[in-house]
UniProtKB/TrEMBL annotation:
Domain Methyltransferase small: from-to ranges: 16-128
Entries under Gene3D superfamilies matching the protein: Vaccinia Virus protein VP39
UniProt record, GO biological process: methylation
Enzyme Commission no: 2.1.1.223
Protein name in UniProt: tRNA1(Val) (Adenine(37)-N6)-methyltransferase
Lineage: Bacteria, Bacillati, Bacillota, Bacilli, Bacillales
Amino acid sequence: MLKGDERLDYLLAEELRIIQSPTVFSFSLDAVLLARFAYMPIQKGNVIDLCSGNGVIPLFLSKRTKGKITGVEIQERLYDMAVRSVQYNHLDQQIEMIHGDIKDMPKRLGHGKFDAVTCNPPYFLTGEKDERNENEHLAIARHEILCTLEDAISVSSQLVRQGGKVAFVHRPGRLLDIVTVMRKYRLEPKRIQLVYPKVGKEANILLVEAIKGGSPDLKVLAPMFVYNDNNEYTEEMKEILYGENEGKAEVSDRYVGTKKL
């Protein structure tokens, strides 16, 4: 089942397992927080996750909704990892992974077919080639090489139904870009939350949720802190990450300040 340097990890507090690889893809805190933050229809509905990577967000969401979940990933290796994780967890009837470009999904899947959209897009502008990670898989996942922020927002707006919700995780420095582009495509931001490494530090994760065709009325949620003064996870973060299974999770800290991109 596993290939190369892949490993089978516990999916944090959930009773799930996920295939990961240090040289291809390992999920990070941002994915955990987005899956927790986003609105989900509980009993039924259609949900789509864009830029799915190894399928971590669809797996998380399967614990929050009984609806149908679709994940889209352009990198074949990551898509393959996601499919095998879905199969391992016996979620084939709920989660469908698609190997393809998100820009093709409105034509392929139809407009306004989804109640909720989640997206953890590449964070960084393309830049010069020598500024990117030399690992092709990581470079595509982190830089806007195959998918720009506007691509992701435009596609989300086309896929979600009127009144449906779209949730993104990104970096705080792109907040104005996100709001501007969302409004361009009739997605009205309704909730935002900033996540900080610890008290006294600048925020490094941004969560935004918008409603298709919604009226202006933005709610700014209470800030969230990852570490306390002793550089240990805060009680809130421990509950999010571990629940009753503390110590079993394997989550990258590359967005919370302990590893370099």
